[in-house]
From TrEMBL:
SUPFAM superfamilies: P-loop containing nucleoside triphosphate hydrolases. InterPro entries: AAA+_ATPase, AAA_14, DUF4143, P-loop_NTPase. This is AAA family ATPase. Residues 35-161 form the AAA+ ATPase domain. It holds the Pfam family AAA_14.
Length: 430
């Protein structure tokens, strides 16, 4: 416990922390402001959850808080709820019997962590304290894990395109706009046309680097420096959940081979050595809960058809590159892949901002890439035409075409992504 909290001995030792040193050395420097609430922070590995916790601790120390009132513990070494309860009991009896700040990192792999945490809340261990806990999986969040909601659940995703542009290029003075009002969204988008060349250049960079902080502060291709880090983090999580790497790898390779196309669990099972569509379904759900994949299901009116074919994308373009190298041995992007990766980026941005995002297709093979409420979004990347969208309302996204016809708008992808995305770092849809 002492080893993980060196500021108990000397408060200035917070600045010796590796994550803190890295953050303070960055240019531009980006530090997420602390949230004054009890939080359960989940998100993919390497997205910056631990760094956020450490900078929050730095912020608290700089306000002259007594250092022993701040507990940080990485829960990787804890087996179950009893270990968790024992940890807090020791802290309260030996270090700080009073209120304070408790930060428990990577708690969601601890067996029955939610039961242990609820016991600690009910037992008064967190009375008058601020509590942050973090994790890399939402598996247990499908059901209510903490009755009474002592923690607010939030997701920390990789940067969306708007935040990527604001941080690493320049911030544009325009508000986020709702895509549900096509004419207003189009009129707002027109204001960004003078920045189109720079937005497109940034989108190509985002395509290569993605939204992870670490990949955006080095020169050259980030895959060379971070492939092993991100790959090993994902495989470590699979091992903790006792899943077979071979099955995961075959599924991921099949997804890459069919990227942007509709695919089913049966297809994956038959075209790999896995055999069982139920096994494929289990691994797909797990990969989605580990924030590796985003799965879009067919929309039929206002209903989701969970049994139909699915469209599956990685939640960040850098994860695509990592998984391509993992399964294919090479992570460079070919020209023919770019439209499909752009499509996945659009889908991910829509899913973060709107509920019930899916896709649809009609008899005869007519497909709409994404459906949000009563409108469609068709991603063309190259040239676009109003006839490309098979319903009466929505957007056709291209490289640089612009136009409007009734309730259909043709817009550049980069402008669309920038305008639809919020500038908030946390999302609360769980």
């Amino acid at each position: 416990m002492n080893f993980q909290n060196p500021w108990w001995i000397d408060k200035n030792r917070i600045y010796d922390d590796e994550q803190i040193k890295k953050v303070l050395s960055l240019n531009p420097r980006f530090i997420i402001s602390p949230l004054n609430d009890n939080l359960l922070i989940i998100g993919p590995r390497q997205v910056g959850k631990t760094t956020f916790i450490k900078t929050t601790i730095m912020n608290i120390i700089e306000k002259n808080t007594e250092p022993t009132k701040i507990l940080f513990f990485s829960c990787d070494s804890l087996k179950d709820k009893d270990d968790l309860i024992s940890l807090l009991s020791q802290y309260r009896s030996l270090i700080n019997p009073d209120n304070g700040f408790v930060f428990l990192d990577e708690i969601t792999f601890v067996k029955d962590w939610n039961i242990g945490l609820l016991h600690l809340f009910n037992g008064g261990y967190f009375k008058n304290s601020m509590v942050y806990v973090s994790g890399s999986t939402s598996v247990s969040l499908k059901k209510e894990t903490l009755p009474g909601r002592p923690l607010n659940k939030v997701i920390l995703y990789p940067l969306n395109f708007r935040m990527f542009f604001d941080i690493y290029f320049k911030k544009l003075n325009v508000n986020t706009s709702s895509i549900l009002d096509v004419k207003k969204f189009y009129n707002d988008a027109i204001k960004l046309v003078p920045y189109l060349a720079e937005l497109n250049r940034a989108l190509l960079e985002y395509l290569k680097r993605g939204g992870f902080f670490a990949t955006n502060y080095i020169k050259g291709d980030p895959l060379a420096s971070f492939y092993e880090t991100y790959k090993d983090a994902i495989l470590s999580d699979l091992a903790k959940l006792r899943k077979e790497e071979r099955i995961f790898r075959e599924i991921i390779e099949k997804i890459i081979d069919s990227y942007g196309s509709r695919i089913s669990e049966n297809t994956i099972a038959k075209e790999t050595s896995i055999g069982s569509h139920n096994t494929v379904s289990t691994y797909l759900d797990l990969a989605e809960n580990l924030f590796i994949l985003r799965i879009f299901r067919k929309m039929e009116g206002n209903k989701i058809n969970n049994k139909s074919f699915k469209k599956i994308y990685f939640i960040d373009p850098f994860i695509y590159r990592v998984m391509k190298r993992y399964t294919k041995g090479l992570g460079t992007l070919e020209e023919k892949e770019i439209p499909h990766i752009i499509e996945g980026i659009v889908g991910e941005h829509l899913a973060r901002e709107y509920e019930r995002v899916g896709y649809t297709f009609f008899k005869g093979g007519k497909e709409i890439d994404f459906i949000v409420e009563n409108l469609g979004v068709e991603v063309k990347w190259g040239r676009g035409d109003f006839r490309d969208l098979k319903i009466d309302k929505g957007y056709i996204l291209t490289l640089d075409d612009i136009g409007i016809n009734g309730e259909k708008a043709i817009l550049p992808v980069s402008i669309f992504l920038y305008l639809l995305s919020s500038s908030k770092i946390f999302y609360t849809k769980i």
